[in-house]
Q: What sequence folds into this?
């Protein structure tokens, strides 16, 4: 599985090719999206991937708490079609 990378979020990292994307890189990149990305970046990686990886992402407490709260809002779940919950 590979995800489309926004090069503006990885100025300090060599972007791996799709074949080189590791589990560790995906976790790092998803944490970067949640820390520094925008709505387009969220849409690009997909809400399901964020829900799947959220518990294992290394995020500052304030950012983790915000996204944990945000993704559990009923209107957000309805907007993205999310059917499961985020475990912080």
A:
């Amino acid at each position: 599985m590979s995800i489309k990378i926004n090069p503006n979020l990885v100025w300090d990292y060599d972007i791996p090719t799709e074949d080189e994307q590791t589990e560790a890189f995906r976790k790092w990149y998803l944490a970067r999206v949640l820390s520094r990305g925008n709505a387009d970046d969220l849409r690009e990686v997909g809400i399901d991937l964020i829900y799947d990886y959220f518990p294992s992402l290394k995020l500052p407490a304030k950012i983790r708490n915000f996204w944990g709260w945000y993704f559990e809002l009923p209107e957000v779940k309805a907007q993205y079609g999310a059917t499961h919950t985020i475990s912080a």
User: Anything to note?
Assistant: The helical segments are 23-36, 39-45, 47-53, 61-72, 74-80. Residues 23-36 form the longest helix (14 residues). Residues 22-80 form one domain. The radius of gyration is 13 Å.
